[in-house]
Amino acid sequence: MFLKKSQFTRNGKPYTYYKIVSTYKDESGRNRHKLVKHLGKLSDEEAEKVRRVLKGQGKLPIDKSGAIDSGKQLVEISMETLPKYANVDYIFICMNDGTTEAQVKEILDSPIWKTLPAVKNNKVHMLDYKTYLHYDPISILGQADLIADMLVKNAK
After folding, report:
1. Domain with 120 in it: what CATH number?
2. Cα dihedral sign, 36-41-42-47
């Protein structure tokens, strides 16, 4: 994903707005762009913050255990291996409905958890289970919108 700046002039007045765009390949292998989120007018400083956030996305650690590319919807990992998977700029947490407060507290109070870069930099987002439970195309688009809003708000 990247930040796209669009400029135009109407009735002699210049306008600038921003949007988040993703790139994909069509059936013939050509690169195409897809709008992810309209951001509207941003200051230069806000735009730069969003750019930095987006540049940090997509950097996953090499997974030699196969957990990420296992094809499974859920893979259990130990707290000791968490830094291998969560050595990232941002963390989004969505606890299952049956997760107890004690289980959440055990994770969030763990010394290992507190060493993660996203935790140290206050870049952890708790997601509502009922909002992120569904994974049909329409739900995923709405969820992507909500996450984009979180990232933009956090960048300001």
Report:
1. 3.40.50.1980
2. positive
Cα 141 from Cα 135, distance rounded (Å):
9
What's the CA gap between 72 and 60, in Å, rounded?
17
Which residues are CB-neighbours of 149 under 8 A, at least 6 positions away?
A: 37
Mean pLDDT across the chain: 82
Number of domains, the chain: 2
Beta strands 91-93 and 31-40 are unpaired
Q: Provide the CA 97 distance to its chain's centre, in angstroms.
A: 22
Look up residue 137 and give its two tokens.
């195309």
Please enumerate in sequence order all residues whose Cβ is within 8 A of that of 15, keeping only pairs 6 or more positions apart, or say none.
Answer: 7, 8, 9
pTM value surpassing 0.85 = no
Q: For residue range 90-100, what is the model confidence (pLDDT) as tens digits?
A: 888 888 888 89
Q: Which of 28, 55, 82 is the last residue of a domain?
A: 55
